[in-house]
Amino acid sequence: MLETNAAPPQLILKLAYGFWHAKALFAAVELDVFTILAAGPMDLETLMAATPIHQRGARDFLDSLVALRLLERDEKGRYSNSSESDLYLVRGRPTYIGGLLRHLDARHYKNWKSLTRALVTGEPQTSLGSGSYTDFYADQLTQQLFLQGMTAGSLPAVRTLARTFPWHRYKTFADIGTAQGCAPVEIALMHPHLRGGGFDLPFLEKEFAAYVRRHSLSERLTFYPGDFFSDPLPSADVLVMGRVLHNWADSVRAMLLEKAYQAISPGGALIVYDPMIDEERRSEPHALLSSLNMLIETAAGSEYTAAECADWMSRAEFREIKIEPLQDVHTAVIGFKLPAPAL
Amino acid sequence: MLETNAAPPQLILKLAYGFWHAKALFAAVELDVFTILAAGPMDLETLMAATPIHQRGARDFLDSLVALRLLERDEKGRYSNSSESDLYLVRGRPTYIGGLLRHLDARHYKNWKSLTRALVTGEPQTSLGSGSYTDFYADQLTQQLFLQGMTAGSLPAVRTLARTFPWHRYKTFADIGTAQGCAPVEIALMHPHLRGGGFDLPFLEKEFAAYVRRHSLSERLTFYPGDFFSDPLPSADVLVMGRVLHNWADSVRAMLLEKAYQAISPGGALIVYDPMIDEERRSEPHALLSSLNMLIETAAGSEYTAAECADWMSRAEFREIKIEPLQDVHTAVIGFKLPAPAL
After folding, report:
1. Which of A86, A188, A229, B53 has the CA that lies 20 to 30 A from A258?
2. How far is A338 from chain B (nearest CA, A)?
3. Which residues of chain A have pLDDT under 50?
4. What pLDDT is stored for residue B139 in this prediction?
5. Which residue from A61, A31, A80, A54 is spatially nearest to B303, judged by alpha carbons?
6. What is the 3-state secondary structure of chain B?
7. Chain B closest-CA separation from residue A339 CA (Å)
8. Bridge partners of A323?
């Protein structure tokens, strides 16, 4: 007999159409709807005149954004930004994360077509999978989208870190794998007593310098060129290693943590953050799926739990290890290098 | 100043990563994880041996499905299907909707890459946009995926319709744009007194006949070959027109409703269903986004509200029009052709 009174497949349908939700958001960011609406509420005609959106799908598109709670629509039919869209999706605001969404759209949406192949082969499906960032960054447009994506994707986590870590106890810091320098900039902006910089491959110096200059921090932030496979890490009171360990195999992680321990001043700290898997491996899909993204993108990377990270850090001699969720999709694990005991 | 205490962009991140959720589900269906688990709970090793999934991403992938609530995992680490997955994602069950997910994955995920272009041009972005289903169906694999997608996508709605419409009052029915014949089969299975069939383009006869034969209904269900632009619709007490009107411009919709009125017996009914937009155009993103799918897929199609549909039906002389949500993503609008008044 047919099971005619069964509940409808609501969860399955909700998950299945998730890519529609994502693409509607991505298109709105690409068409800069939120930046245009930052000027104030607009009716359909005004908004259409201000964007390249064709009349045919305009109303359904904008009402989709209302139904997705990215826009609001008043009783006169005028559209405006939701408070979250206004804060995060208006170009030019310091909180803008459109770069992340452009990155997800231009890079990840395409990469994820190959999820099944990655699952079956265990092999990366993108050019980054070779492990060479130099090759990867060779294409200028890829580099720009990737770097802006990294910056926007780190921004909320880095802001939380800048606000919550006891930076007043330290004088110097360096961000390892800094890309444009999003982390040093946010930390330096919030803590004027700190000096430091960012470590990354030499050809990223220009990008870093430009980003730091835009934030008027060139006096306090330095670029440390290097390759963490062959070079030591810069010395500082605090090192930050965000979205780095998840790209690499366990052996590389251990090597990087040991190098970090060497570079940190006695009494200093290491802050590692990544989208970490919950300890039960069942309550938060984001980090588990992010681990599949590492499967698609890298030769041996994956996400991991905070407990695994704490274990690796303690093997590298870090002590008083603490776990701090960063309010977005990231978690930080913080370990301290004890001062040398008094003789 | 930076707005450092602002709420994190949680809604934006949730929407942005929706394509990860969708693709994880699609990959699990493609790899037939749920069918394999229908045999009973399996630990990681057993499940890996039963599927082509490589060891590297296996645990993260399966735990992702747990976190998405598609699988369960017991205290011994054994995976099993959730009740919804067991009902809808196990191949061979009459409730299986894997065909819809394969269709969304193979066709829509790719099509939606072109959303921005569709929004800017107002033009369809797929081969179906020419309006010729004959050309479209010419590719055998495309046809199979599309037809199975249509069937699986209609199944939950059609089951609700089969259960809730007062079929006992009628003797004959025909489904317009029937494809494989999913609607006539479900209705005939639940109501043994009914006879009827499905109307579609002539080359679909073989598909229809095979599908009906698999359900042992060849005695009661007939294929009506025809083109609804040039031919009349088959006569019956009840006509069903599901996921048809949304493909076409208003003028075609009016023509089809008039043809339906001509074909229906006095006292009979027309059932139209589509993913209809809520009247306020703000509470349900699905139908609004489905309208964008029509923008991508068709030259002049779109979704519409139940009130708009009721208005079109009343212009075609239907009366006592009722609106019935079908519990999945579809809504039905039902209109009646009044019996001729007694002289």
Report:
1. A188
2. 31
3. 1-3
4. 72
5. A61
6. CCCCCCCCCHHHHHHHCHHHHHHHHHHHHHCCHHHHHCCCCECHHHHHHHCCCCHHHHHHHHHHHHHCCCEEECCCCCEEECHHHHHHCCCCCCCCCHHHHHHHHHHHHHHHHHHHHHHHHCCCCCHHHHCCHHHHCCCHHHHHHHHHHHHHHHHHHHHHHHHHCCHHHCCEEEEECCCCCHHHHHHHHHCCCCEEEEEECHHHHHHHHHHHHHCCCCCCEEEEECCCCCCCCCCEEEEEEECCHHHCCHHHHHHHHHHHHHHEEEEEEEEEEECCECCCCCCCHHHHHHHHHHHHHCCCCCCCEHHHHHHHHHHCCCEEEEEEECCCCCEEEEEECCCCCCC
7. 32
8. A333
Q: What is the pLDDT of residue B5?
A: 60
Strand partners, B81: B71
Q: What interface predicted TM-score (ipTM) does this complex get?
A: 0.93
Q: What is the pLDDT of residue A3?
A: 46
Average pLDDT across chain A, whole number:
94
Q: How many CB atoms lie within 10 A of CB B139?
A: 12
Give the A:B interface size as CB pairs under 8 Å.
289
Q: pLDDT for A27-70, tens place per residue?
A: 999 999 999 999 999 999 999 999 999 999 999 999 999 999 99
Chain A CB within 8 Å of residue B262 CB: no
| CB proximity B54 to A under 8 Å | yes
Low-confidence ranges of chain B (pLDDT < 70): 1-5, 129-131, 343
Which residues numbered 106-145 in A keep a CB inside 8 Å of some CB on B?
Answer: 108-110, 112-113, 115-116, 118-122
Find residues 268-327 of chain B whose CB sits inside 8 Å of chain A: 277, 281-286, 288-293, 295, 302-303, 327
Phi, psi angles (nearest 5°) of residue B281: 55, 45
pLDDT at residue A337, as a whole number: 98
Q: Parallel, antiparallel, or unpaired for β B71-73 and B79-81?
A: antiparallel
Tokens linked to B244: 């048809």
Q: What pLDDT is recorded for position B343?
A: 67
Distances (CA, A) of B93 to A96, B85, B86, B136, B221: 47, 11, 9, 29, 22
Please give the pLDDT value at position A152. 85
- Report pLDDT for B326: 94
Give the pLDDT confidence score for residue A145 in this predicted structure. 79
Predicted local confidence at residue A343, as pLDDT: 67
- Measured between CA atoms, how close is A312 to chain B, in angstroms? 20
